Amino acid sequence: MYLTHLSLTDFRIFSRFDQDLPSKNIILAGDNAQGKTSVLEAVYYLSTLDSFQATNTTELINFFALQADLAVGRIVADFHRKDGDHRLEIRLIHESRANGNHSTRKEVLLDGSQMKINDAIGQFNAVLFLPQMLQIITGSPQRRRHYLDLTISQVDIRYRESLTEYNKALVQRNALLKQLNERSGDPDQLSYWDEKITMTGAYIIFGRIQAIHQLDLLAASIHQELTRGEEIFRFNYLPSYEPLESPPGQMAMPLESPVDRSSLTLEEIQDGYREKIISRRNQDIHRGTTAMGPHRDELRFLSNGIDLGSFGSRGQLRTTLLSIKLAEVGWLKEKNGEWPVLLLDEVLAELDDTRRQDLLTRLADSEQALLTTTDLGLFSDDFCQAAGLWEIQQGKIVN
């Protein structure tokens, strides 16, 4: 899978950007704050309809365009995948209402036909590396859950739908729990929402177990290469509901001991989760909230048994994030049969010469990657000769 054309209108710094792309690696060079990262953000948005940087959709629309009553930011991409050529268009529409408030909404068109947001996710695949994404490792559990959800949603429509339905059911169940806590009532009123939580939540847990198991194997191999065999890397999934029961008398596994749950069936997870949800009703009513479920899951990253989120050095964190992202590329290829477009923001800046060369060698075999840099000297001559070069200044290509 690769892009053949990208057009941006009133997106971030770009009032207008229109460029053909070759099916090879492209270096985006220029000073800071010129729009290089915004190009990567736009391409990633095509894949997930989500921005890792923006806190809301309105932030993606060009500031000057937002001064009008109606502002429309557009990302339009022509891309090729095995079933042919396609065009994906995303419209970010910000408009004034009669009451003086504003609203922002999204519209998505594939080959000219409007489609639902959930159906649009994953039509085009991309993997994004930003230095800010170190927060996946060091930040809050919510950051890691969000990363998992974006990754899995690109390849599993049932996961996307389950996530949407679970979040809706969770809001309703929590509202009812609060009501029962304050006014009392029959706990059996929860039965409908318990079942909705069980069915959708169990699939989220099942999807995370399978994805993490597969990503773990890929990332461990890549990480071993990048560290010259000095570090053993592992994902450690810590679900709020533990579907794998410990044998009687056995203590819970410690943080540095990942558990393999990949043999569990969806039905086994559903049955166990339903039992737990029902058994904890009184506790949830007392708290006024649902205490157990995938909305409370945690994911940690370990190197030689050490939790990198707490004890990793800057170099370890950056190498780990790179391993995770390269594993994500391989995982998407396995799932879709298509190489995703790889988006790398200043990835070479903090790598030593050996790891930098290892990465460039890997990228030489990729279908398409976009890499930003403020220093072309970080790239080998051979890589520069084989890649395309865009010099970006104030939201424009100048070469």
Describe this structure in words.
- This protein has twelve helices and 15 strands.
- By secondary structure, the chain is an alpha/beta fold.
- The model has no long low-confidence stretch (mean pLDDT 90).
- The protein has a six-stranded antiparallel beta sheet. A six-stranded mixed beta sheet has the order 8-12-13-3-14-15, with helices on both faces. A three-stranded antiparallel beta sheet has the order 9-10-11.
- α5 (157-183) crosses α8.
- It is globular.
- The chain has helices at residues 36-48, 117-120, 135-138, 141-153, 157-183, 191-226, 266-279, 281-287, 308-311, 314-336, 353-363, 381-386; strands at 2-11, 14-20, 26-29, 70-81, 84-96, 102-110, 113-115, 126-129, 233-238, 298-303, 306-307, 341-345, 369-373, 388-393, 396-397.
